[in-house]
Amino acid sequence: MKRPAWLTAIGVLLTAAMLFPVYWMIAVSLTPAGDLRKSPPDLFPASPTFAGYEQVLREQLPYFGTSLLVALGTVALTLVIAAPAAYALAKLRPPGRRVLGFVLLVAQMIPGIIMALGFYGIYVKLGLTNSVGGLVVADSTIAVPFAVLILTSFMATVPDELLQAARIDGAGPWRTFASVVLPASRNGVVTAALFSFLWAWSDFVFATTLDAGGRLRPLTLGIYHYIGNNNQEWNAIMATAVVASVPATVLLVLAQRYVAAGVTAGAVKD
């Protein structure tokens, strides 16, 4: 059945409206600093320049590296905790698993700033402020509940016959988890890992609360290098935003089919 032209037109307009902020971010990043004060501003850069990107690559690489370490560490810690927990809930079915599932849902409703303030009091006593490990643990508290719920629903779809065959062959619970359930849950693992990476990569609340004025900052705080009381380097700010968007965009493109399958499987009720 052919779709009406007016529906296509509405779809194109809505897509353009949603993508306009992305276009404006790229356009401003290519606009010379002197042209940013025009009123109204140019919709298209009259004299594009890569000065903002040169400045970002020269000054923001340490922040970029910190963000990458924090994001990858968060993914690793999240999967190490969430995958076995999800396996236990989905296949070992311990008593109280429904209560635990409800607790995981509630945990995702707690505002991040409340958790950040709690972490700050603990980290000051332990000396963990302004550390990669501290940010990894803090970001994982957001990622783990979501990952457990996603992986639990996904692992619940793995046929019990596969687990029974593994037990007949002499595999224990851990061997069954590592050799049967985890490979069969690849899409769910990729989905959980991707969202964990994106949360840690874009985190601002934990980063700014647990920074303590140190030099070890992620990219979300590095952008403040260009913001002052009397100076806002908007081309460098937007260039930083573009550079920060590249890893997330690449990961989403590469993992989109796994994410789609993982989210669909996560909708299956146990």
From TrEMBL:
Keywords: Cell membrane, Membrane, Sugar transport, Transmembrane, Transmembrane helix, Transport. SUPFAM superfamilies: MetI-like. It is a multi-pass membrane protein. The chain crosses the membrane at residues 7-26, 63-87, 99-123, 135-156, 177-201, 234-255. It is found in: Cell membrane. Residues 64-255 form the ABC transmembrane type-1 domain. PROSITE patterns: ABC_TM1 (PS50928). The keyword Glycosyltransferase does not apply. Gene3D superfamilies: MetI-like (1.10.3720.10). PANTHER family: INNER MEMBRANE ABC TRANSPORTER PERMEASE PROTEIN YCJP, MALTOSE TRANSPORT SYSTEM PERMEASE-RELATED. Belongs to the binding-protein-dependent transport system permease family. This is Multiple sugar transport system permease protein. It comes from Amycolatopsis lexingtonensis.
